[in-house]
Amino acid sequence: MNSDDTDKGDEASRSTIVEKFVTWHKKNLGKPDPIGIPLVLISFLFITSLIATPLLVEKNTIDLGDQGSVGKIDHDEMISDINNPFAKAIYRFGDRYCHQKDHRSWEINGNQMPVCARDIGLFLGIFIGCIFGASYKRGIKLLILLGLLVPMAIDGGLQALTSYESFNLLRLLTGMIAGFGVGAYVNGSAVETIRILTFKRKKG
User: Fold this and answer.
1) pTM score, two decimals?
2) Backbone angles phi, psi at 111, to 5 degrees
3) Is 80 exceeded by the pLDDT of residue 146?
4) Domains in the chain: boundaries
């Protein structure tokens, strides 16, 4: 087989993949259902707030150190010094629900972000998943959601139970996969449930 035949085969293969994706897209995805828009907007505002908050604080002033735990207030003294009320509230949320360790977090404007890389991925994934959940015609099955949680569970579990130390890009990606599953399942389920209830009400 010469190179021209190989190139034609590769092009045909790519064309087939594109055609299959287009067919799947038309069959399974439509415009976002208005019922799902509120969760899309809420998740968008939240991830935007997490990313923008370090810009609302004076440059190079937020470093929460390498100690912290989930579910416990660890950095109240440092966060209390933040002058911007909105930024303070977001960092307090992070203090409660994230360990806020600096080596597991990224910086913007020279300031540590309010939550770690995994949580940024999680909330970004939830936003993307909410869009998908509002657009997907078939609904996300619970088994698929559980499968999407597995990468984060493995990466985070190994890190918590062994000497294994993950890295921020992997934390971000596993968080996004899990968050996508959560957002798609929750918003998809909400859309489907409200559709059924509305249909029954109209029928009755």
Assistant:
1) 0.84
2) -115, 140
3) yes
4) 35-203
